[in-house]
Amino acid sequence: MATSAPKKVLFFQHSNHNGGAPRSLKQIVTAYENEFGPQTVLFIRPGPVLDTYKNVKSEVKCGKYILPFHGSEVSGMPWKMMVRNLLGLLTVPGTYFRFLRGYDVLYLNSSALCFHGLMARAFAPKSTRIIYHIREPLLHNGWGGVIRACLRRSADYVMAISKNELSNLRLPELPGEVVYNY
Predict the structure, then answer these.
(1) Could you tell me the pTM of the whole model?
(2) In b/e form, how buried is each residue of 153-172, taking b as 16+ CB within 10 angstroms?
(3) Which of helix, strand or coil describes residue 127?
(4) Do the beta carbons of residue 41 and residue 29 sit within 8 Å?
(5) What phi, psi does 56 have (nearest 5°)?
(6) In this structure, what DSSP letter does residue 162 have?
(7) What is the dihedral of CA 152, 36, 39, 52, to 10 degrees?
(8) Which residues contact 8 (CB under 8 A, 6 or more apart)?
(9) Could you read off the pLDDT of 23-43 as tens digits, one per residue?
(10) CA distance 175 to 182
(11) Over the stretch 141-182, which tens digit does the pLDDT of each residue have?
(12) In 3-state terms, the chain is what percent helix, strand and coil (to 5)?
């Protein structure tokens, strides 16, 4: 007998491009839909990724001014990105109040959405579960530490695409597991 699913799940994707993260998320969304029915998928803005999601049953929403906070070994953080990240923090409250309220589970598809998770932890009901899917190692500097602190304060569960990403988080107090892409 299958366990009952939460009533409302929001899958939040940090990119509007057709990379590995949105393709992997689509598989997760499709599997969830098949088991529990359609939910909601949110993208930071319209882009090429929307063509990939045309055949999902879930509602697809797009923001307009949502900026993720990048700080991984993949993206690095050159000074222009640091400025963009800091300016992007101004968009977090509006994103929460416009898109993230009213869900039982927030599935954040990257550590780049950590400030959105932190805002949800502060304002959402205590029963709201926040899950992160970690896809890249965090920077080994102060910015990586900031993201790690956000995860520590907001996450209920962490999934990572490899043992390396999970151990790189250095958050043994958080329950987590490895879920490989594809």
Answers:
(1) 0.91
(2) ebbeebbbbbeebbebbebe
(3) coil
(4) yes
(5) -80, 155
(6) S
(7) 100
(8) 39, 40, 102, 103, 104, 105
(9) 989 999 999 999 999 999 999
(10) 22
(11) 888 899 999 999 999 999 999 898 888 888 989 999 998 876
(12) 40, 20, 40
Amino acid at 172: P
Closest C-alpha among 158, 165, 159 to residue 136: 165
| Alpha carbon distances (Å) from 122 to 17, 35, 153 | 29, 30, 9
Question: Which amino acid, residue 94?
Answer: G
For tokens 């993208």, name the residue: 43
Cβ neighbours for 98, distance < 8 A, ≥ 6 positions apart? 63
- Mean pLDDT lowest among 51-60, 97-106, 140-149: 140-149
Question: What is the identity of the amino acid at 57?
Answer: K
Count H helices and E strands in the chain, helices first. Answer: 7, 7
Residue 60 has pLDDT above 90, yes or no: yes
In the DSSP assignment, the letter for residue 79 is H
Q: How far apart are CA 148 and CA 170, in angstroms?
A: 8
Query: Which tokens in the block code for residue 66?
Result: 């949502």
| Contact (CB, 8 A) for 113 and 12 | yes
pLDDT of 1 > 50? The answer is no
| Residue partners of 71: CB distance under 8 A and separation at least 6 | 77, 85, 111, 112, 138, 139, 143, 144, 146, 147
